[in-house]
Amino acid sequence: MKEIKKIVSTYQSIPDDEKVALATVVRVEGSSYRRMGARMLVSEKGTWVGGISGGCLEGDALKRARTAILKEKSSIITYDTSIDDDHQIGVGLGCNGIIDVLFQPINPLDTHNPLNLLTSLTQAERKVRKLLTVSKSKDPSFQGTLFEFTGVKSLSPLTPFADIETLAKELESHSKSTNLILKDDLTLFLEVLPPSLQLVLMGHQYDLYPLLDLINQLGWECVIVSNPEKVKARADIRVIPRNELNSLEIDTFTAIILMSHSLHTDKENLLTILNSETGYIGMLGPRVRAERIFKELKEEGHTIPEEVFNKIYAPTGLDLGATNPEEIALSILAEVKSVFSQRSAEPLRNRPVPIHDRDKPMTFK
Question: Which end of the chain has fewer CB atoms at under 10 Å, N or C?
């Protein structure tokens, strides 16, 4: 979501008379630096934001995007880094992957252009979104069409190509981005787009600020729960007192860090959030401190359900040997990312399978 927000912000700042094109990675076969859904916005003047690779393909992508602007026509370009061919962009990279990139000019007068939909997503409520992009079509005017799946009715443009009720049932249950192949060689890129991770930091001491810096770099959302007078003001961060915690939307994409440095306050805060939907509760401090909090809560008649206890990470963070606030912040956020990604946080060299799951396109005829 961070890249989408940056692209939307840049698009809104570009003069009305300056044309732009959007490049989107719609298919990946094998290895690649960026995955499906990576985007890059290019203006006719050659400025760009976002990216479709680690920098190795962007030079050619700039030319392709500007060509799309000049021709006012969408196109799919395949980059093959798996073969040793001087005519292939990316030769010698050794990535061993094939990447399809959709280049499409953006018509600002078209209210249904992709960037208008992406803009609306950045302003919408926090929930998983499912986007469908027509990546390949015999009808050139249909290629590049982007719409959000919200039920059977939203699939009406696909009625000539599939049983939309059957397709809707499949989309409702599907939780990963993939490609869908319909009849007449129509290919759709299904993008499952979760909301940004949200961090709720319950504390006000100086070790709060390295966390804020890293969270900002990651593009995650952040709320501080503390006495606003005790926190240095930052325009991009919302600060609320604890008695307003109920006004905060805490969902399954939210991580909460208890870091007040007061055992009593952390205990009270833990009690306050026990029934929330949070997917992660981190407790700063040594294990014995957390065990004392659990013991006191039990003695006071408060039971922590097993499903909640399994979401508590105490001490919070990965074992990186962190000793200062900046390293501790890195340790905490690395663990948060691994938990929400459902990954082990082990060295990648120990991973017996590819880093990313391989896409298996689904066919509907």
Answer: C
pLDDT tens sequence across 119-152:
888 877 888 889 998 888 888 888 888 888 999 9
Task: Give the chain's domains with CATH numbers.
Answer: 2-105 (no CATH), 125-195 (no CATH), 198-340 (3.40.50.720)
Angle 277-278-282 from CA coordinates, rounded to 5°? 150
DSSP three-state, residue 120: helix
Q: Are strands 129-136 and 146-148 parallel, antiparallel or unpaired?
A: antiparallel
| Amino acid identity at 214 | L
Q: Choose among 284, 346, 341, 340: nearest CA to 311.
A: 340
- Tell me the C-alpha to C-alpha distance, in Å, between residue 286 and each of 115, 211, 283, 314: 47, 19, 9, 7
pLDDT in tens, 338-355: 999 999 888 888 888 777
pLDDT in tens, 253-294: 999 999 998 999 999 999 999 989 999 999 999 999 999 999
Q: Are 149 and 155 in contact (CB under 8 A)?
A: yes
Of 108-117, 217-226, 345-354, highest mean pLDDT: 217-226
What burial letters (b/e) apply to 326-342, b meaning 16+ CB within 10 Å?
eebbbbbbbbbbebbee
